[in-house]
Write a structure and sequence with these properties.
By secondary structure, the chain is of the alpha/beta class. The chain contains 33 helices and 26 strands. The strands form 6 sheets. Strands 3-2-1-4-5-6-7-8 form an 8-stranded mixed sheet. It has a 7-stranded mixed sheet with strand order 15-16-17-18-20-22-24, with helices on both faces. A 3-stranded antiparallel sheet has the order 9-10-11.
C-alpha cells in the first residue's frame, strides 16, 4: 500500500509544536494542533463569569501558543494563508480526532512520564497503522516504546526537527527497537521530497548525531576562547562565514538559542554518557556556569554574551561581555592577519589550509578547535552512526555549516591534518590510522560526477545513498566544464542541457558574468537543447548588478558608458526569453535586482521554497533597468480582463517596486507575480533544485519548444495611471513618509510602468518600454542623492535615506 500524508496531528503547541504544524501546513497538509486544557482560570476570565468548561477556556493554551508563534520572526509560514490549514484543539476533548489522521507527531515537554501519559491517550484513539513519532531531542526512543502495543511500536520512531523547522534543513530519523524498516524508508523519503529536509538516519544514542557533535564543538570552542583570552567578538568572527558557518558565530548563536538549552543538553550528556572518552568536555566551562548563575541566558533574558541597550540618543548599541570583569563593554570589531590572508579566496575549501597555517591567535585557535572536533567526531563512529557522511550531513543541516567535519579535513589534507592533530594532542580514532595505512588519503572522492564516501568496515569507497539523481556542480567541475571565465562557468549537465553558474561575489552581474550568460545562450542554441541558470551557492542566486562599476561611471558622469552597459544588460535579459532553446532558472535564497530580472525573463523558474525575490533598485536611487519595470507592466497587462480595475492591478506591482519589497518565500513571490502559478515550480529540498530545473528544461524541449516573438501588445495606462500614482506619491511626501528623492524615483517609476506620456491607455511594445526604462535609469544616475545611496551601500552596507 502506498502511504500518503494528508492530515497530521501535532500534540503539543509550544515553540516547536506550533512551528512543525505550520511547516506541514506550508506544504499543503491539514493539521490538527492540540495542547492541554487549563487547570485554572485567569482573573479576567473569572470576572467574565467563565468556567473551566467554557469552550474558549478549554482551548486557551493552544490558542495563545499558536498565535504567538504566528507573530514569530523569521516567519514560520510561507504566506499568511497557511494558518487556515490548521485547526486547534485540546488533549481532553479532541484526541478522538486523531483516528482520522495519517501521522501523529508528539512534541510535548521533554519528560518521559508526560510523554507516556500522552501515548496512553493516543493508543485509545489511534487507527492501527497510523504513524506515531516523537520530536524528542534526547529521550531514548526505546524507553518511549516500553509498554506500548505491537502495532504502536512497529509504526513508532523519533523524528527530530531542528528549530526553526521551516529554515533548518535537518530531520533526524531515529528507529525504535521494533520500528518497521518500511516506516523508516518512508520517512527518509518523505522528509527529503516533501518537507525539504536533509534526512539523516541516526542510532538511538544520547542527543543523536547533530546535537551530540554540535554541542560538543560549541562548548569546547567557548572553553578554548577562555583559555586563549579571546573576546566574544573575536570568536564570533572566527567561527562565522569565514569558515562557512552562520554569521551568528558561537556566542551570538548561544544567545539566540538560549544558554539554558545548551546547558541542559550538556548536563544530560554528562550524566548518561558511560563510554565517551571525552565526557569531561560536557562539564560547563567557567564562563557558562557564571552566566547560568546570573540567569543571563541570552535573548530570552535580555542579556547573555551580548546585551543590547539604547544610548542617550535612543540608538541601539550592542555591548559584549568581558570575561575577566563579567561586565559589558561596547562591542569592538575583530581583526586578525590570518583572516586578512583569506579575503581574496572566494571559495570555502581553499581557505581552510590558509587558516590553519596562521601564525597569530586565529591560526592557533583553528588548530585547537578543528582538531578537537575532528578527534571527537572520529571516535563517535560507529557509536552514533556507521557511516561518516551521516555525521557531516547532520552537522551541516542542523547547525548551518557549509562543510562537515570530514569534508573540512579533506580540504586541508588528511595526512597533514592528522599531524596537526597529534601536535595538539588530539589524536583521532584508530580507524583513521588504519585508513591511512591502507593507502586511502581522503574521506570522500568524486567518480563519474558522483561523490563517494570512505566506508570503514569494507575499507572501500561507496556512493552516498540518495544522491544519485542530484546535480552537484562541485562534483562535475573538473570534468564537465565546457567554457569559463573569471565570472562564470558553463557545464554540460547531460541529456542535451547546458548549465551556467556565476561565481562573482554574491553572484552579481559584472562584465564577465554578462559575457558568460551570452556565451551560454549562443552555445546552447548551437549544440544543446536547453539551458539551466543556477548554482550551489548557499547565499544567493544573484544579489543583482555589480554596483561598484556603475558607481564609478556615474561619478565620472560617463553616461554613454552607462547607457551602453544598461542596454547590453537589457539585451542579455531579453535573450533569456527570446532564445531558440528553453531557458530555465533555478532561483533560491537572495534573488534580487538583476537576479530577479533574469528570472522574470526565463521560460520557467524552478524556485527553492526559500527564495527571497524582489526588485530592490529604488534602495540605491534608481529603478529596475534590466527589463524588470517593463516586465511588470507586461505581466499586469496580461492580467487585465474586461471589467477589471486595471489601475489596482498595476498599483500592486508599482508598490512592490517602489517599496523594494522582497518576498519572504517562493510562495509569496508567486503572490507578488514574480513567479507564475501554473508555469513556475517550487521545490522544497534545495539540494534537488538543479536536477529539477534540468528536468524542466528537458520537458520544455521535448514538448516542442518554439522561440517566442517579442511582444507589441502590452497595455499601458498612460497619463491616467501616472496621475493616480503621482497623487499617492505627493500624499506620502506631505505625510513625511518618503523623502524628496524617494518621490523623484517613484515619479520616474510611475512614468515608465505606465508607458510614458500617452493621452490614453493603449498597447505598446517591449522595446518601447525598455527605452523608457533605460532613459529613467540614466537620468537618476545623474542625481547626487542617488550617488550618495550607492556610496553608502558600497562603503557601509546600508544606503542613506536621503
Amino acid at each position: 500500500m502506498q502511504r500518503k500524508i494528508n492530515k497530521i496531528a501535532v500534540l503539543g503547541a509550544g515553540i516547536m509544536g506550533s512551528r512543525i504544524a505550520l511547516h506541514f501546513a506550508n506544504i499543503g497538509c491539514q493539521v490538527l494542533l492540540m495542547d492541554m486544557v487549563p487547570k485554572s482560570l485567569l482573573p479576567d476570565e473569572e470576572a467574565k463569569g467563565l468556567t473551566l468548561e467554557s469552550p474558549q477556556i478549554r482551548n486557551r493554551i493552544v490558542h495563545e501558543l499558536f498565535f504567538k508563534t504566528l507573530k514569530a520572526k523569521p516567519d514560520p509560514a510561507y504566506t499568511k494563508e497557511v494558518a487556515s490549514r490548521i485547526s486547534l484543539g485540546n488533549f481532553d476533548d479532541d484526541m478522538s480526532k486523531i483516528a482520522q489522521v495519517d501521522w501523529i507527531i508528539e512534541v510535548v515537554v521533554e519528560r518521559l512520564d508526560i510523554k507516556k501519559l500522552i501515548y496512553d491517550k493516543v493508543e485509545a484513539h489511534r487507527k492501527p497503522g497510523t504513524l506515531v513519532t516523537s520530536n524528542t531531542s534526547g529521550i531514548p526512543i526505546h524507553l518511549m516504546c516500553e509498554g506500548r502495543s505491537e502495532d504502536f511500536q512497529a509504526h513508532f520512531c523519533g523524528t527530530h526537527f531542528f528549530n526553526p523547522p521551516r529554515y533548518l534543513r535537518l530531520l533526524e530519523i531515529i528507529p525504535g527497537p521494533k520500528t518497521q524498516v518500511e516506516i523508516i524508508d518512508f520517512l527518509m523519503h518523505y522528509g527529503d521530497l516533501y518537507l525539504g529536509k536533509q534526512t539523516v538516519l541516526c542510532k538511538d544514542t544520547p542527543a543523536f548525531i547533530a546535537n551530540r557533535l554540535g554541542i560538543y564543538a560549541m562548548v569546547q570552542t567557548i572553553r578554548t576562547a577562555q583559555e586563549m583570552g579571546l573576546s566574544v567578538e573575536e570568536v564570533d568572527k572566527l567561527t562565522g562565514p569565514v569558515v562557512g558557518r552562520p554569521k551568528s558565530g558561537t556566542f551570538r548563536l548561544s544567545d539566540v538559542v538560549g544558554l539554558d538549552t545548551t546547558v541542559n543538553v550538556c548536563n544530560n550528556l554528562k550524566g548518561i554518557l558511560k563510554t565517551d572518552e571525552s565526557v569531561a568536555a560536557f562539564k560547563l566551562p567557567e564562563i557558562m556556569a557564571k552566566l547560568m548563575e546570573n540567569k543571563w541566558l541570552g535573548d530570552k533574558t535580555g542579556q547573555g554574551f551580548y546585551k543590547k541597550i539604547k544610548d542617550e540618543k535612543g540608538k541601539s548599541v550592542i555591548l559584549a561581555l568581558d570575561f575577566d570583569t563579567m561586565e559589558y563593554r561596547p562591542s569592538e570589531k575583530a581583526q586578525f592577519e590570518t583572516l586578512n590572508a583569506t579575503k581574496s579566496i572566494d571559495r570555502l575549501a581553499p581557505r581552510f589550509p590558509v587558516l590553519l597555517k596562521g601564525k597569530d591567535k586565529a591560526g592557533a585557535f583553528y588548530r585547537k578547535t578543528f582538531t578537537d572536533t575532528f578527534k571527537y567526531a572520529s571516535h563517535r563512529i560507529p557509536e552514533i552512526a556507521d557511516e561518516l557522511f551521516r555525521v557531516d550531513d547532520a552537522i551541516k543541516a542542523g547547525f548551518g555549516w557549509q562543510m562537515g567535519v570530514f569534508e573540512t579535513v579533506d580540504a586541508i589534507g588528511l595526512k597533514s591534518f592528522v599531524e596537526i592533530a597529534e601536535g595538539e594532542d588530539h589524536k583521532p580514532a584508530q580507524w583513521v590510522y588504519d585508513m591511512l595505512d591502507a593507502g586511502f588519503e581522503s574521506f570522500y572522492r568524486i567518480e563519474k560526477g558522483q561523490q563517494l564516501y570512505y566506508d570503514i568496515p569494507s575499507k572501500s569507497y561507496k556512493p552516498i545513498p540518495g544522491t544519485e539523481g542530484l546535480i552537484i556542480l562541485d562534483n562535475i567541475r573538473k570534468t564537465n566544464v565546457v567554457w569559463e571565465n573569471s565570472g562564470a562557468s558553463l557545464f554540460d549537465l547531460g541529456d542535451g542541457i547546458l548549465g551556467v553558474e556565476f561565481h562573482s561575489k554574491m553572484n552579481t552581474f559584472g562584465a564577465e558574468v554578462i559575457e558568460g550568460l551570452n556565451k551560454a545562450y549562443s552555445l546552447a542554441e548551437k549544440d544543446f537543447r536547453g539551458l539551466v541558470i543556477g548554482n550551489d551557492d548557499p547565499q544567493a542566486f544573484s544579489a543583482g548588478a555589480n554596483l561598484a562599476v556603475l558607481f564609478m561611471y556615474a561619478i565620472e558622469q560617463e553616461f554613454d558608458e552607462i547607457n551602453m552597459i544598461i542596454a547590453q544588460f537589457q539585451q542579455t535579459m531579453m535573450r533569456a526569453r527570446y532564445s531558440s532553446i528553453p531557458v530555465v532558472t533555478a532561483a533560491h535564497s537572495l534573488t534580487l535586482g538583476g537576479g530577479c530580472e533574469l528570472n522574470l525573463h526565463a521560460d520557467k523558474i524552478v524556485a527553492a521554497a526559500e527564495t527571497y525575490m524582489g526588485l530592490v533598485e529604488v534602495g540605491v536611487g534608481v529603478i529596475p533597468g534590466g527589463g524588470g519595470t517593463k516586465e511588470m507592466a507586461l505581466r499586469c497587462s496580461d492580467e487585465y480582463h474586461p471589467g477589471d480595475a486595471e489601475l489596482n492591478i498595476l498599483q500592486s506591482a508599482f508598490m512592490n517596486i517602489a517599496q523594494a519589497k522582497v518576498s519572504t518565500s517562493a510562495h509569496e513571490a508567486m503572490q507578488m507575480n514574480y513567479l507564475k502559478a501554473g508555469r513556475d515550480q517550487i521545490v522544497l529540498n534545495r539540494a534537488r533544485l538543479l536536477a529539477e530545473a534540468k528536468q524542466a528544461a528537458i520537458e520544455l524541449a521535448d514538448n516542442g519548444y518554439t522561440q517566442p516573438v517579442k511582444r507589441n501588445d502590452i497595455k499601458v495606462q498612460g497619463r491616467a495611471g501616472i496621475a493616480l500614482f503621482k497623487a499617492g506619491i505627493k500624499a506620502m511626501r506631505l505625510g513625511n513618509y518618503i523623502s524628496d528623492h524617494d518621490a523623484l524615483i517613484a515619479d520616474k517609476l510611475a512614468y515608465v510602468i505606465c508607458g510614458g506620456d500617452l493621452s490614453y491607455a493603449q498597447p505598446v511594445s517591449e522595446d518601447y518600454l525598455l527605452d523608457l526604462e533605460r532613459e529613467a535609469f540614466l537620468s537618476l544616475c545623474g542625481e547626487r542623492k542617488t550617488l550618495e545611496r550607492m556610496q553608502g551601500l558600497l562603503t557601509g552596507g546600508k544606503p542613506p535615506r536621503n
